[in-house]
């Protein structure tokens, strides 16, 4: 069974928890976002967009089929434990986990073009783990009628351990949030 949860955005001024990007301190559990009092439906620097989902065996198998990455650490629990050193068994492909970032952006800004992504894989994500992904706008520039937005990108497991982090740049047709 696949669990998917989509959350909108959160203004940093309304956060009940501090957000520590690029530090060893894990982010707190996702909370329901609160719109910015100034612009409740416009993206601004500091806004956080979140999305959670649980990756299951069938997700990993489909990703392996599409990409051709049949590394047994993703598909064979015993191999993952004995040879890969992953004590909990099969691990989700890192790029499958990282695919949550463009999904968050595209679902909130239809027509967005994802232009770059830098990633660091910090810890494995095991099949069945719930992953919370978040992107935070850290820079917004307008060029003609488009917006170039730089985001920090982070994923956490259900234990709130950071598993992926990095930065992404996307070209947005507008700053209006669609969700």
Automatic annotation (TrEMBL):
Gene Ontology molecular functions: (3R)-hydroxyacyl-[acyl-carrier-protein] dehydratase activity
Example of a GO biological process term: fatty acid biosynthetic process
GO cellular component, one term: mitochondrion
Residue ranges of every copy of the MaoC-like domain listed in the record: 54-149
CDD domains for this protein: R_hydratase (cd03449)
Classification via InterPro entries: HotDog_dom_sf, MaoC-like_dom, UPF0336/Enoyl-CoA_hydratase
Name of this chain's protein: (R)-specific enoyl-CoA hydratase
Native organism taxonomy: Eukaryota, Viridiplantae, Streptophyta, Embryophyta, Tracheophyta
């Amino acid at each position: 069974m696949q669990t998917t949860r989509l959350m909108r955005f959160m203004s940093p001024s309304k956060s009940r928890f501090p957000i520590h990007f690029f530090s060893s301190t894990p982010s707190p559990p996702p909370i329901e976002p609160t719109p910015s009092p100034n612009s409740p439906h416009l993206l601004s620097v500091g806004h956080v967009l979140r999305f959670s989902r649980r990756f299951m065996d069938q997700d990993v198998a489909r990703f392996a089929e599409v990409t051709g990455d049949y590394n047994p650490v993703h598909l064979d629990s015993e191999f993952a434990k004995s040879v890969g050193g992953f004590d909990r068994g099969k691990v989700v492909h890192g790029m499958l986990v990282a695919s949550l970032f463009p999904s968050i952006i595209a679902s909130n800004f239809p027509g967005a073009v994802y232009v770059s992504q830098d990633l660091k894989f910090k810890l494995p994500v095991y099949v069945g783990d719930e992953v919370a992904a978040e992107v935070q706008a850290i820079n917004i520039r307008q060029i003609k009628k488009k917006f170039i937005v730089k985001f920090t990108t982070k994923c956490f497991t259900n234990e709130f351990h950071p598993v992926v982090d990095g930065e992404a740049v996307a070209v947005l047709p507008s700053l209006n949030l669609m969700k």
